[in-house]
Request: fold
Amino acid sequence: MILGWVIVDKNIRDMVIGLFILAILTPFGLLASGDAFGEWGLNDLKEKLGYAPSGMEELSSTYSAPMPDYSLPGTEGSTGSALNYILSAVLGIILCAGVLYLLGKRIARNG
Amino acid sequence: MHIPDGYLGPYTYVALYLVMIPIWVHAGRKLSQELRSRQVPLLALSAAFSFVIMMFNLPVPGGSTGHAVGGAIIGIVLGPWATVISISVALILQALIFGDGGITAIGANCFNIAVVMPFSAYYLYRLLSGNSGLGSSKRMAAVAVAGYVSLVLAAAITGLEFGIQPMLHHDAGGLPLYMPYRLNITVTAMVLEHLVFGFIEAMVTVFIFAYIRRTDPSLLADSKPKSERGLEKVAVPA
Reply:
């Protein structure tokens, strides 16, 4: 259904191809080591400050995501991380596009 | 720029959820009034694009990292309200499945990345491009500036939310409960870093804009003056 549309429209098809090329290139995003400002792990922050903010300690364990840091379940920090990262990107593309496609088709007017 | 759980205290994250609810409702209404079925694939791909572009972490001196968002070009092409929905979906999936950005901070992250960014980019683009032609250097400059400034602005707002935490929440001994760094540090750090990443966002924005202008300029029709539309159709080869 979604593929049918993609093949019909050349521009959309090209954009999908471009997206999957980007997905394959995502491991370049792993080369940057370190965390973004304000996204440090609790232990790293404890080292910097000498203590862990107590509210942060409680809140930070609110939820654990099934694929933390764009890794497959159970493989965090493993050496196959480049492939994991690509698979996460592909899954992200399918989920984002899928959710918005279904939502869009429900609410869009013809034309 | 994805705030994790634990960095914002309840006042801030609840407030930003409360701010986001009417924005999401209004964006959803506008989308259902204006969205046409032929635009649906583009909307779907925009969220996927933003999702992937945010995975390209880049280093800055000092050991920190960051990334572009794609929020400016989506805002310019789809309009800011559709972009709210598009990037919010990407951010919510990043939080729920990949743990990038906190659950408590979904309101905050959507506000910074899916609202501040596309709205500032869209209006800066409109303001700076004026009546210039679709392919003019003035318009391309407007696109670049919109990309650059909107990312830095979103980072500054994020820094602001971080920096008010020590004032809002501390224990009896004065120790901060959430983000420990103060406003001058958080805003400075977020802005300085994103002065670098802004160039990447500007490049992404210009590149996609130029690509769309070449392949399907009708997508940019709403953002150029009416008087030019006829001319543009003749000038751009199919």
